[in-house]
Design brief:
Elements (H helix, E strand, L loop, with lengths): L10 E2 L2 H4 L9 H11 L4 E4 L3 E4 L4 H24 L7 H12 L3 H11 L2
Parallel strand pairs: 1-2
Antiparallel strand pairs: 2-3
């Protein structure tokens, strides 16, 4: 479900651009630096402050947000058991493409859950 992560997840270090801050992107300069560190990736980790996701639609961004968080927990659990075997770049790309075609299904579930 997290094949989109196969392209990597850069880390944005706000101190490199803004010095000591409150960790929030409050200026155009910080926004530009965050976007530059994101480059062509689907998400960027923000040191000490979470992550920023991008996508072609709100549905895709929500999908990526949910599955990035789930995958992080699963990866930590797996690494406690030993060495992990990650997807090859081609596997990740194929998985991401297949999952992007099926976003409507989890979206419908999340929408129903949000209305309860």
């Amino acid at each position: 479900m997290s094949g989109f992560l196969g392209r990597g997840a850069p880390v944005f270090e706000i101190r490199d651009v803004g010095g000591m801050t409150d960790m929030l992107i409050r200026t155009p300069q910080l926004g530009k630096a965050l976007a530059a560190s994101l480059a062509d990736k689907p998400l960027v980790l923000m040191r000490g402050h979470g992550a920023t996701m991008v996508g072609g639609s709100i549905k895709q961004v929500v999908y990526r947000s949910i599955y990035a968080a789930l995958n992080a927990g699963l990866q930590m659990d797996a690494l406690r058991l030993g060495e992990a075997t990650f997807l090859a770049p081609e596997e990740a790309a194929k998985a991401a493409a297949a999952n992007d075609k099926a976003i409507e299904r989890p979206w419908a579930l999340w929408k129903r859950q949000a209305m309860v």
